[in-house]
Amino acid sequence: MRSILTVHAALLVLLLSGCAKQPVAMSPQSSAPSPSGMPSAVSPSSQPAFSQSTPPPEANQPVVGRSDSGSARPAIREFVENAALRDIYFEFDKYDLRPGDTKVLDVNAGWLKANPGHQMLIEGHADERGTDAYNLALGERRAQAAMNYLVAQGIRATRISIVSYGKERPVCNEHNEACWARNRRDHFLTKAQ
After folding, report:
1. What CATH number does residue 97 fall under?
2. Are the C-beta atoms of 183 and 142 separated by less than 8 Å?
3. CA atoms 120, 25, 165, 99: torsion sign
4. CB neighbours of 88 closer than 8 A, spacing ≥ 6?
5. Whose C-alpha in 10, 92, 116, 120 is 20 to 30 A from the C-alpha of 154?
6. How many Å apart are CA 29 and CA 91, to the nearest integer?
7. Within the chain, what is the greatest distance between any pair of CA atoms?
């Protein structure tokens, strides 16, 4: 009798350990822990923590946003540069919109209103400091902040996609504050619908 229970218990353990877990997608509002050894510039009470059930994004893989309805957005490669749209920049370890950047976003929102047949992709970027997972999450929060502002200006959320590249696509490769400041940005691309 005891050996039968032992065999059943062993089979149950093997069965449960072999079951694959479903990955949990990151929500646009999710946040990552601070990079090791770096103080967080955002207070813990105002920054939601990563859910323990939410795995960090894979290194070197962009985090792509989805619409509120859950439908997939257009392919990233379909979006192109648009000289009428300007980038916005962020302070170290922050995703707050600065007053000067809201003026840039107002111009970008005006372009979208004047061109209703276009969609926008907002790329969130970070500087090289911090882990890959942290910078991907920070880039996503930056892109989401710009998207939220544009939606508040009357742009439909279904016209905007977001993606985070973290630190993977720098515009400057020097290792100094001036260069890092240029890399902490949101970049805007468009495509005709």
Report:
1. 3.30.1330.60
2. no
3. positive
4. 97, 98, 101, 104, 105, 146, 185, 186
5. 92
6. 19
7. 78
Domain annotation covers residue 3: no
Phi, psi of 182, rounded to the nearest 5 degrees? -70, -25
Q: How many independent structural domains does the chain possess?
A: 1
Tokens of 20: 């694959």
Q: What is the pTM of this model?
A: 0.65
The pLDDT tens digits of the residues spanning 127-156 come to 999 999 999 999 999 999 999 999 999 999
In b/e form, how buried is each residue of 48-59, taking b as 16+ CB within 10 angstroms?
eebeeebebbee
Give a yes or no: residue 52 inside a domain: no
Tens digit of each residue's pLDDT (9 = 90 or more) over 2-59? 666 666 666 555 545 554 444 333 434 444 444 443 333 333 333 333 333 334 444 4
Q: Check: CB of residue 59 under 8 Å from CB of residue 133.
A: yes
